[in-house]
Write a structure and sequence with these properties.
Elements: H1 2-23, H2 48-61, H3 70-89, E1 106-109, E2 117-118, E3 121-124, E4 128-131, E5 143-152, E6 155-163, E7 177-182, E8 188-190, E9 194-196, H4 200-217, H5 224-256, E10 261-265, H6 269-273, H7 278-284, H8 286-301, E11 304-308, E12 333-335, E13 342-344, H9 345-360, E14 379-381
Parallel strand pairs: 7-10, 9-14, 10-11
Antiparallel strand pairs: 1-5, 2-3, 3-4, 5-6, 7-8, 8-9, 12-13
Length: 397
């Protein structure tokens, strides 16, 4: 009920803005041959302040709007206003759209107090106390700022934002460094010779999802069986996304625990996903890992994180540093024709990334054989190590 009312307010006010724009589309001395929006020339553009003031009058005309907390409706209008601001100010942002049930799945309480939390319940203004299952303890010494209710495939979730006034200093470059390269045959390669494969549960889920979507194609759209299968597909997406995110966070913690500096390539993964390996990149979520999860964990654990130039990392020898020429995609081994070093292609690129990062932060680069005593220096791992070695990281739940 709450979501439907908020969605209705969003769509109504979006339509009001869109009509105002349409009424100013044609020159003043002519009309459209199809239809015309008759809006007074003196009427200003319905921005957030105007629509928020009109909301009070709409509550008298439509009593069901009073069922929703006033701040929730105001935050809905701010959400709409942000979408319009992004359209005019952010390059490449599309025109705002009307929201259906699948595109409007959350509402926000912009203010909330500590007294609204009582284990195992939480109080939502104008709704009352609701029993919840906490995923973690509430942080101490921090002030609750905002509460968001999100509808997902398996139910409703509460996202609580706490604010701390403590200042956190930025991490400074340390002694040890690690370079990471986004691979093709593997998920990611490190400069220490590790090749991390995409977890098996992601590949299994992709096959199961393909089967379910084929069955959905033969159902009548809107029928009971179609809706039931849609819900099953949504739950599978939700389960896989949770397991993959859990794996990515553990992987990030593992990387940050063994080094002081982490260097990655500065890659536009959105453009990369439109290429030959788009499905593989989307399933593995490598862009989210390198651009969101890894920087957050590095900041949280005090590890220095920086992006370096991505160009020609696979065309440079990490040992003699001479250009070795362009390699085809099926050439997965780096063989230097000058110094004779043999490495996995992705591992060699990770070593080049590490060296570029060290130069960027002003660290001395040691000129030693990058292969070490292990020849090719490559370990093919499912995650990092077997049970009983330096990590007990698991591949899934």
């Amino acid at each position: 009920m709450y979501l439907d009312i908020c969605r209705g307010v969003y769509n109504w006010n979006h339509g009001e803005r869109k009509d105002w724009i349409q009424s100013r589309k044609n020159p003043i001395d002519r009309c459209s041959i199809e239809k015309e929006y008759i809006i007074s020339a003196d009427k200003p553009f319905p921005n957030y302040n105007i629509q928020a003031n009109n909301l009070t009058q709409y509550k008298k005309q439509y009593p069901h709007l009073a069922q929703v907390h006033s701040q929730v409706l105001q935050s809905t209008l701010k959400r709409l206003d942000q979408a319009w601001d992004d359209f005019f100010k952010v390059e490449g942002r599309g025109f705002p759209k009307f929201k259906n049930q699948n595109r409007f799945r959350s509402f926000v309480y912009p203010q909330i107090k500590r007294s609204d939390f009582k284990d195992p319940e939480i109080r939502l203004p104008s709704i009352g106390w609701l029993r919840i299952r906490k995923s973690r303890e509430y942080p101490r010494g921090m002030t609750p700022k905002q509460l968001r209710i999100v509808r997902k495939a398996t139910g409703y979730f509460a996202q609580i934002i706490f604010v701390s006034h403590e200042s956190v200093p930025e991490a400074l470059p340390g002694e040890t460094s690690l370079g990471l390269d986004a691979g093709i045959s593997s998920f990611v390669a490190s400069s220490r010779g590790e090749l991390i494969k995409t977890p098996e549960f992601v590949l299994r889920a992709a096959r199961k999802l393909k089967s379910l979507q084929r069955r959905l194609k033969n159902k009548i759209k809107g029928s009971v069986n179609w809706l039931r299968l849609q819900n099953k597909i949504a739950k599978l997406h939700f389960k896989v996304a949770n397991r993959r995110e859990d794996w990515l966070y553990k992987l990030a913690h593992n990387f940050c625990a063994v080094t002081d500096n982490i260097f990655v390539e500065d890659i536009n993964f959105k453009a990369w996903q439109r290429g030959l390996f788009g499905k593989q990149i989307g399933n593995s979520a490598i862009g989210k890992f390198l651009n969101q999860i890894l920087p957050f964990i590095a900041w949280k654990t005090g590890v220095y994180y920086q992006k370096v130039d991505k160009d020609f990392t696979s065309q440079e020898c990490p040992s003699c540093r001479l250009p070795t020429g362009k390699k085809s995609l099926n050439q997965r081994v780096h063989n230097c024709q000058y110094c004779g070093v043999t490495l996995d292609r992705d591992v060699a690129a990770a070593k080049v990334i590490e060296r570029r990062g060290q130069i960027a932060v002003g660290q001395p680069v040691k000129s030693k054989n990058t292969c070490g005593d292990r020849g090719a220096g490559v370990e093919q791992l499912t995650l990092f190590a077997a049970e009983g070695t330096r990590s007990d990281l698991v591949t899934g739940l």
